[in-house]
């Protein structure tokens, strides 16, 4: 499996300002934070979610749901 197969694209929506940005969503790991391109806030997962993609992406997190 090559790197392209292990990454998916998803749009993250910042809970602070609502900005949408595309990010690479790994299929075999969780992403514990991201920095919004617009407001520069460091965003962390909600509640028991494993990563920011579980909480704020337009696609299900494959690390948790795959």
Provide a descriptive summary of the structure in words.
Strands 1-2 form a two-stranded antiparallel ribbon. The protein has one domain (3-61). The model has no long low-confidence stretch (mean pLDDT 85). 20% of the residues lie in helices and 27% in strands. It contains 3 helices and 4 strands; from the N terminus they run αββββαα. With 66 residues, it is an alpha+beta fold.
In angstroms, what separates the terminal alpha carbons?
Answer: 16 Å
User: Class by helix and strand content?
Assistant: alpha+beta
| Beta strand % | 25-35%
> Care to count the β-strands?
4
Average of per-residue pLDDT values: 85
Envelope shape: globular
Low-pLDDT stretches: none
Order of strands across the widest beta sheet? 1-2
CA radius of gyration: 11 Å
Amount of helix: 10-25%
> What count of helical segments does DSSP give?
3
Biggest sheet, in brief? 2 strands, antiparallel
Features:
single chain; 66 residues; two-stranded antiparallel ribbon; globular
Q: Strands, helices and their partners?
A:
Blueprint: H1 3-6, E1 7-13, E2 20-26, E3 34-35, E4 42-43, H2 52-56, H3 62-65
